């Protein structure tokens, strides 16, 4: 136990600690605070505190949209990410409007970026851990299955896509008609029992 206490004392009063603290504070400001001044978000958009936003001046979030826990929304300096109204993102979704080139013979980290905007329509659900790549457009009403990787535009509305790369696997069913007489426990919802 004494070994651990000495480790804490020794490193708390070191230059290394102060540098690390300053670095951590600066990163916190960059990752969680600074982008909020630049993002274009409708007043009722919800962005989880653990979401990672890059180049927020090029990110547009529609009304009643939700960016969930641990999502990455990484626009680039020369491309935008535009999210429609009523968009849902499951946890861990990644939107990347740029990427390194991948030519052989030169390190990828030294190659030019490929940048292209991402545009996602209204009433879209991006399932947990799905990924949307640069230049992709997704039509209104599309459901993207968890873990799917969207590498090409989805132009047909109200479809379900899944897989790597994502492909259409079905269509969204129509909404069921609500009949309040079929509801159970209606007495527990006082205002609903008055609806005729």
Keywords for this entry:
3 helices, 5-stranded parallel β-sheet, 2 domains, alpha/beta, UDP N-Acetylglucosamine Acyltransferase, domain 1
Question: What does the model show?
Answer:
The strands form five sheets. This protein has a five-stranded parallel beta sheet with strand order 1-4-7-12-15, with no helix packed on it. Strands 3-6-9-14-17 form a five-stranded parallel beta sheet, with no helix packed on it. The chain is an alpha/beta fold and 196 residues long. The model has no long low-confidence stretch (mean pLDDT 90). The protein is 17% helix and 26% strand.
Question: CATH class of the largest domain, please?
Answer: Mainly Beta
Ranges where pLDDT stays below 50 over 5 or more residues in a row are none
How large is the count of helical segments? Answer: 3
Query: How much is the radius of gyration in Å?
Result: 23 Å
Summarize the amount of helix as a percent range: 10-25%
